[in-house]
Amino acid sequence: MVSQNAMSATCAYCSSEAELTREHIVPNFLYRANPRAKFGFNPKADRFITWEAQIKDVCLNCNGLYLSKLDSYAHQFCLENGIDRPITDEKTIRFVYDFSLLSRFLLKVTFNCLRFKGQDTEWVRPFSHYILYGADHPANLAIKLGVEVAPCHKIAESERPHLPDESKHWDYMPPHMIRIGQISGMLSSFIFCRYVFLNNFCFYVIVLKRSVAANEIRTALKQFRGALPNVIFLDSHVKAMTLKVSSITAMDKYQDTANTLMDKWHEYIREQG
Q: Which of 61, 166, 184, 206 is positioned for an S-S bond with 144, CB 3.0–4.6 A?
C-alpha cells in the first residue's frame, strides 16, 4: 500500500515517474528470522540503528510485483539451504541455487544498501532491468558470485566468564548476522566487489568490465582469492554444489568491521546509560 505521504518522483529501478513506496534493504522475513540483525551501523547517518532499514524510492509496481518475486525466491532459497541453522562441526554443505535468481536477489540487496548509505551506485544501477525482469544484464559487465560457509565460533572455557548469562552454557556462538558492505583491499577501476552476509553464509558479488584485458581480470581475481582463499565461486550452469565449510569462523570474518566500529560502539553504550 502506498503511504499517505508518498511522493511522486523517479523510481530507482524502472525510472518511471510514480508515487514511491518503502523498500526493505533486505526482505523483512530475514529480520523476522534474525531480530538481532536489526542492529547495525549506518555510515551515512553516522550512528547505530535498531530497526528494519528501508528506503523510500521504489514505485509500487516494482516493489509489489517484481521485487517481491525475488524476495519469494530468497525465502524459499533460505529455507532449502537452512540459512538460519547454525553451522558448527559440519565439513561440507549441500548448496542448492538458481544462479540467475540468486544473483538478481544479491544485486537487489546490494543496490538497496548503496542507496540507503548514500554511496555510489554506478556499478549496480545498469543491472536494474536484470534485477527486475531477468533480462540480459549489460553486455559490457560480467557477474561472478562467490560463497563462503563460515562456521560458528566454538566457545572456549576461558571465554565463558565474559559472556552474558543467556549464552554461558552455549557450545557455539551463533552469528545471527545480516551485514552488507565493501570488501576491503579490492579497490580497482574495473572490478566491483561487495559482500552480503546472512548468518553463516557469506556471499560475494563481483562485477567485472568485459573490456578489460584478460590478464588484468586474472590478476584481480587472484588478488581476491589471495585475500579470501575459502570463497567458492558458483557455477552458473548447475543447480547445486557441495561446498566445503571454511576454516575461518563467522566471528573471525566480522572482526575487522567490529574493530573499526569499536570506538563508536563504546560511545553508543555510554549514550544508552
A: 206
